[in-house]
Amino acid sequence: ALLTGGRVHQSSRMRREREREETLRPLELRVRETRPLFYTEGRDVFPRLREIEASLEEVEDLARRHPGHPRVWSILGIGWYLVGDGVRAERALLRARPDDGLARLHLAKIHISRAVTEKAAALLETEVAGEEIDRQLGRAYASFAAGRKEEALRRCDEGAARFGRDMGAEEFHLIRAMI
After folding, report:
1. Does this model's pTM top 0.90?
2. Tens digit of pLDDT for each residue in 122-145?
3. In the chain, which stretches have pLDDT less than 70?
4. 44 contacts: CB under 8 Å, gap ≥ 6
5. What is the pLDDT of residues 99-113, one digit of tens each?
6. What is the CA radius of gyration of the chain?
7. Do residues 114 and 142 make contact, with C-beta atoms less than 8 angstroms apart?
8. Which of 10, 37, 80, 100 has CA atoms 20 to 30 A from the CA of 133?
9. Looking at residue 1, what is its pLDDT?
């Protein structure tokens, strides 16, 4: 009976994990595809944002059922950030893993947009993990948030030169504009 009970418990846990993945995967893919287009595609990005927004309620429900799963909170927070809901984005991103570089980067961007640069600088003290473009953006935002404008400009110039044709590189120019 104990063995059977263990199998049932393992089976239900695996079913919950599969359910979570089936809900998260489509939104995660939409977020990853949309994030780099956010600054360049103008009106064309709105249908994608509507798709993300439509998925967010389902992921909110998933987060309520699995409150201890940090990836749910990270994807949810970045999704809310992309659709422009900073309050919900911040609430979700604060529940992501502390070493989740993209979650920290987006949380820092929320703080920068609110002119709370000391919080943003603290979030970005540790190198942002992820793709190289995200690490370079993290370094540029960290310099900007810490008030090191010349360093931030240099990091933006380096990023724009290195990633100039890559999706998302426009964000280096956005940082420059804020300086």
Report:
1. no
2. 888 888 777 888 889 999 999 999
3. 1-10, 30-46, 167
4. 37
5. 888 889 899 999 998
6. 18
7. no
8. 80
9. 43
SS (H, E, C) 73-104: HHHHHHHHHHCCCHHHHHHHHCCCCCCCHHHH
Task: List the structure tokens of 47.
Answer: 């249908």
The Cα-based distances of 81 to 46, 49, 85 in angstroms read 14, 10, 6
User: Please, what's the largest Cα pairwise distance for the chain?
Assistant: 68
Q: Which of 177, 116, 171, 95 is nearest to 139 (CA)?
A: 171
* CA distance linking residue 109 with residue 142, whole number of Å: 10
Q: Which residues, other chains included, contact 156 with Cβ-Cβ below 8 Å and sequence gap of 6+?
A: 140, 172, 173, 175, 176, 179
Structure token digits, residue 161: 């030169």
